[in-house]
Structures are given as C-alpha cells and as structure tokens.
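Q: Sequence in, structure out?
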Amino acid sequence: MLGVFALHGFIESLMDEIDSKIDVPYFERKIVVWLDRPKRLGTLAREMNVLPSTMTTAADQLEARGLVVRERDPDDRRAWLLKLTGDGADLRSSMVVMARTLLCETLELTAEELDSFARTSLKIHRNIQKHTTC
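A: Exactly. Output:
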C-alpha cells in the first residue's frame, strides 16, 4: 500500500514538473492523455471519474485551445465524440514521451518493465471502474 501512495505522490510531482513546460491546465492535460482514441464525453467522464458537466466544460476549453474537436459518433448520430486535433495529438505524444522518460529514469525501470506496469495498471483501473459504476 505504501508503494501505491508513494507512486501516486511521485506521479503528481512529475505532473508539476511537466506543468512548467506545457501551458495547458492539469485536468485538461489528463483528458488529452486519456484520449488515445475518439471517445464520447460521457465515456471519458466515467473513465476519469468526473461529472459529465465537468467534462463538458473542460472539453469546451480544450476545443477553444484547438486541441480537440467534437465529431458525430458514426454509431449513434445523436452522440458526439471528442477527438484530438493534430496539435492535441502532438501534445499527447510529447507528454507520454516525457512521462515515460521520467518514470524510467527515476524508478529505474526498463521499457519492458514499464510496459508491463502500464498493462497491469490499466487492468486495475478497468476492475475498479467495473465495481464503482453500478
């Protein structure tokens, strides 16, 4: 348990370090990272454990910054998808590279160990989501 808390604190400090390099608020950067593919706002809100209204406000801000666009969901024309623009994809890519580099260097993990950790973390997240969205 202590390792989980220590890792959380460490990641928060990494985000602070990234803050000084990127002029996009913390929560909006988190959304950019979560947008690995176009997603509905409601899905993204559930994944990030925030209210849909919070997600809508943040999406408006990201859209104003030119980092995302809203597109109709081809599977349900009533719904909208949030999708990264070219600038948004560039920002996401640079943040992922920066975070991977800092994690590997600081935690002394190999790329393979970090990939394994990422897969395990996603599994944990999915299982937590399953049990909290009833």
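The longest strand covers residues 76-84.
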